[in-house]
């Protein structure tokens, strides 16, 4: 089918989605991502080991800490992928590529500014440094996608697939060797300091994240198929991604600069096999995280009861929940550490090891995570109701 025929065939279900008949699987998966993301962030503020060493450092970590970090690896790629899917669905409902393009680049710019000036102070504890992370990556992906919405969705899919499959060929290129082009490379492909002498770090180099959002947009038509056909397709894609991950990872030839190693004990060998690179996200990182995410979508579509309602609520207000949970975590950590006599200032990312009495340990971090998400839920219910009742244009940016 041509792109025009595709649009005509799916316009009616797309309009239904725009009118409020949202796909529950997308909202629930997005909600699950928010909940897991909060676990990662609570761990950063409540477990001292998060500041003492990398939880994926196999010489220092332990299974519970490693797996807590690993499960939260799924958040950013799934969130970015779903941003691409949502852009496709919203574009069909708008039926105006220019309007979609305008929405994408303005929303993308908004997310970049929020990351730099509203989210960064949480991580740097008001030091003035800027850390460019998840929202920066998604925002840049939206801006890049704004130029592709005038093309068939397959163009975005193929471009995204090429980026994800091929960008690890660039792992041997380093900013320190590029002279005047070093700042550009730090933005595109290698985690490092901000360009132009600015204080801070680029934690999410944007090239592979652009690939992820493009693949999400390119697979958008799948989400307009019948539930049965969609479930079969998503399951096949998920299984294929995980199979390719296992094959490439076992070969230790391509797909991740961090090779796995056989250890004397089976547990550390298994953890090494799972230890894939996030900064930037390697091909193997994307395959394992999106593979699981694709398999979860059909299951979450059938989910019922309280769990479905909770995930749906968080998933309908992801930006609101994201910003709010970070500040609640920061305030809670400040209260806990003040009671314990620990000054949070000076403990911003990368500043060194915290005092011995910092935090409440990994088990305590899990307790804090449950308490914080429980406290946030009523606010998210309220804001989801606001977005359901009103159609103000500015709500689309929140």
Structure in words:
- The chain has one domain (3-397).
- It is 67% helix and 2% strand.
- The chain is built from 16 helices and 3 strands.
- It has a 3-stranded mixed β-sheet.
- Strand 2 (192-193) and strand 3 form a beta hairpin.
- The radius of gyration is 21 Å and the shape is globular.
- The protein starts with a helix and ends in a 9-residue tail after the last helix.
Order of helices and strands: HHHHHHEHHHEEHHHHHHH
Number of domains: 1
Number of helices: 16
How many β strands by DSSP?
3
Runs in which pLDDT lies below 50 for 5 or more consecutive residues are: 5-10
Radius of gyration, CA atoms, in whole angstroms: 21 Å
Q: Averaging pLDDT over every residue, what do you get? A: 90
Relative strand content: under 5%
**Spatial strand sequence of the major β-sheet:** 1-3-2
Anisotropy-based shape: globular
Largest sheet: 3 strands, mixed
| Amino- and carboxy-terminal Cα gap | 35 Å
By secondary-structure content and strand pairing, the structural class works out as: mainly alpha
Percent in helix: 55-70%
Keywords: Membrane, Transmembrane, Transmembrane helix
Transmembrane segments: 70-92, 104-125, 202-224, 231-248, 282-298, 319-339, 359-384
Organism: Methylosinus trichosporium (strain ATCC 35070 / NCIMB 11131 / UNIQEM 75 / OB3b)
Pfam families: HGSNAT_cat (PF07786)
């Amino acid at each position: 089918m041509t792109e025009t025929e595709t649009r005509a065939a799916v316009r009616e279900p797309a309009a239904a989605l725009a009118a409020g008949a949202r796909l529950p699987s997308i909202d629930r998966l997005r909600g699950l991502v928010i909940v897991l993301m909060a676990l990662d962030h609570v761990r950063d503020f409540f477990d001292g080991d998060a500041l003492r060493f990398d939880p994926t450092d196999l010489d220092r970590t332990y299974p519970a800490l490693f797996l807590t970090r690993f499960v939260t690896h799924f958040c950013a790629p799934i969130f970015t992928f779903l941003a691409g899917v949502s852009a496709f669905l919203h574009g069909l409902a708008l039926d105006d590529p220019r309007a979609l393009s305008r929405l994408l680049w303005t929303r993308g710019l908004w997310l970049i500014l929020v990351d730099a000036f509203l989210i960064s102070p949480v991580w740097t504890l008001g030091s003035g440094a800027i850390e460019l992370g998840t929202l920066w990556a998604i925002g840049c992906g939206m801006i890049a996608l704004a130029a592709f919405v005038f093309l068939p969705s397959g163009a975005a899919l193929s471009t995204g697939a090429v980026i994800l499959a091929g960008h690890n060929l660039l792992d041997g290129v380093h900013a320190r060797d590029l002279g005047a082009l070093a700042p550009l490379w730090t933005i595109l492909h290698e985690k490092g300091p901000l360009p132009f002498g600015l204080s801070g770090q680029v934690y999410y180099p944007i090239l592979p994240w652009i690939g992820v959002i493009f693949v999400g947009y390119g697979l958008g038509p799948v989400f307009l198929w019948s539930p049965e056909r969609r479930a079969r397709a998503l399951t096949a894609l998920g299984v294929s991604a995980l199979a390719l991950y296992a094959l490439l990872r076992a070969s230790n030839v391509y797909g991740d600069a961090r090779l796995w190693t056989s250890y004397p004990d089976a547990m550390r060998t298994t953890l090494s096999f799972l230890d894939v690179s996030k900064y930037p996200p390697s091909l193997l990182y994307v395959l394992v995280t999106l593979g699981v995410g694709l398999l979860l979508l059909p299951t979450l579509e059938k989910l019922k009861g309280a769990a479905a309602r909770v995930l749906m609520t968080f998933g309908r207000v992801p930006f609101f929940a994201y910003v709010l949970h970070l500040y609640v975590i920061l305030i809670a950590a400040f209260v806990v550490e003040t009671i314990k006599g620990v000054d949070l200032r000076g403990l911003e990312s990368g500043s060194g090891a915290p005092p011995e009495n910092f935090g409440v340990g990994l088990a305590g971090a899990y307790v804090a995570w449950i308490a914080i998400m429980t406290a946030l839920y009523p606010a998210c219910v309220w804001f989801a109701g606001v977005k359901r009742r009103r159609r103000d244009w500015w709500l689309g940016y929140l």
